[in-house]
Write a structure and sequence with these properties.
Distance between the termini: 14 Å
Shape: globular
Oligomer: single chain
Number of strands: 21
């Protein structure tokens, strides 16, 4: 590599591209990362809006992901934990489901007749023990079917699935029929049992910034969109051609399809998050709240989780729904929030709305847990569409692309 001619161009500075670039740099290759926007992170970004931290869609960070543990300085991220559980608003009132192994005093919440009956509690114990303790390779090799089918086979009643699993997992899968791969479900359930769901106090953008900090100072070029790939490398929108021995496309699905014609991509889920400002927290604890009526996916007072998300004297409430923001939808969400939080939401201010068009790939069974990053001679691709749709999947996809590049270039 010379100063202006890297060995590898990585197009896109999301977490997949950053992971790929870091592994290539660690192996001694020269890498340049080209990012179209003004900051690293892709979908994992946060904005400052009137003194509030607003993630681009509600997100959580799971400390149990193997790629996360290997790559990120968790202490430096100043992570703030969620309660290890969830609140479920039902016709009987708000019920609490908490991991009793972490909060033993909440064990009475799981007594038969509250959230679940004896059959469901036994099934839950067996499922959790197997997913938490069994080797990951057994989970990965298990029969793949829909999550709903797998839950029925595990012995759960339809009532418990509809009351707990469907509303909770809808916010994880971004679909509300439990059609997602059971392999992905089991891996997600495993990491939830083993890890902690958190938010960095400065916003989810702290995660990709920490990844980028491990690259050479001049490795990332921001505000450098790529127009097309060439035989020699890539042509930027500014008209300059950048040559390289290999090019990795690590963008979102739309730009990836444009740069790599013929690339097969799954359909993506769309999610919208409404950010409301309240004069005080309507909940007073860092817990996710869901409901079975499908009026929203989940809601959370994010400033209860990470106080840095809101200035003193106010609270920030994030509520996500499937699909686009349509006329009148926020009014319906606000009404539902008044009911589930038990407060008057009429005086809440709508701070902003974030719609993410490609929030998560659909993962219907059979779902491969990893796909090759090789696309053609000298052309590679990585991202959550090449693995499971999660931070773990995106990071692992970037790592796999880097390994394939190193082998192909003789390193």
């Amino acid at each position: 590599m010379t100063r202006d001619t890297p060995d590898v161009l990585v197009i896109g500075a999301g977490v997949a591209g950053l992971a790929c670039a870091r592994d290539l740099c660690a192996a001694g290759l020269g890498v340049r990362v080209l990012e179209a926007s003004d900051e690293v992170g892709g979908r994992m970004r946060a904005d400052r809006v009137d003194g509030f931290v607003v993630d681009r869609g509600f997100q959580v960070f799971n400390t149990a992901y193997p790629q996360v543990r290997r790559r990120l300085p968790l202490r430096a991220l100043r992570l703030r934990p969620f309660t290890p559980g969830v609140l479920i608003h039902t016709e009987k009132g708000t019920l609490r489901f908490t991991d009793p192994s972490r909060r033993p005093r909440t064990l009475p919440d799981l007594l038969p007749g509250r959230l679940a009956g004896p059959r469901d509690l036994l099934a839950l114990g067996a499922l959790s023990a197997r997913d938490m303790l069994a080797p990951a390779r057994l989970v990965k090799r298990s029969e793949d079917r829909t999550t709903r089918t797998a839950l029925a086979a595990a012995g759960f009643s339809d009532d418990f699935v509809e009351r707990f699993f469907r509303p909770f997992l809808s916010g994880v899968f971004l679909e509300d029929e439990l059609e997602t791969s059971s392999r992905f479900f089991h891996l997600v359930w495993r990491t939830m049992l083993r890890g902690t769901l958190c938010l960095p106090d400065t916003g989810i953008g702290a995660v990709p910034r920490a990844l980028a900090a491990g690259l050479p100072a001049d490795a990332v070029r921001l505000e450098t969109p790529v127009e097309t790939l060439t035989d020699a490398g890539a042509l930027t929108a500014g008209g300059g051609e950048l040559p390289a021995r290999a090019v990795v496309v690590a963008t979102g699905p739309g730009p990836a399809a444009a740069l790599l014609p013929g690339l097969e991509l799954p359909p993506y889920r769309v999610v919208t998050t409404y950010y409301h400002v309240a004069p005080r927290s309507p909940l007073g604890e860092p817990t996710l709240l869901v409901e079975p009526r499908r009026r929203f996916l989940n809601t959370c007072v994010v400033s209860d989780v990470a106080p840095g998300y809101a200035p003193p004297g106010s609270a920030l409430v994030a509520t996500s729904v499937l699909g686009e923001d349509t006329a009148g939808r926020e009014t319906g969400v606000r009404t539902a929030l008044g009911e589930v939080y038990g407060t008057d939401t009429g005086g809440w201010d709508l701070l902003t709305v974030r719609t993410i068009d490609a929030a998560l790939p659909a993962m219907a069974p059979p779902q491969p847990l990893s796909r090759t990053g090789r696309f053609g001679p000298g052309r590679y691709v990585c991202g959550d569409h090449r693995a499971t749709g999660s931070v773990q999947g995106a990071l692992a996809s970037g790592a796999r692309a880097a390994r394939e590049i190193l082998r192909d270039l003789g390193h």
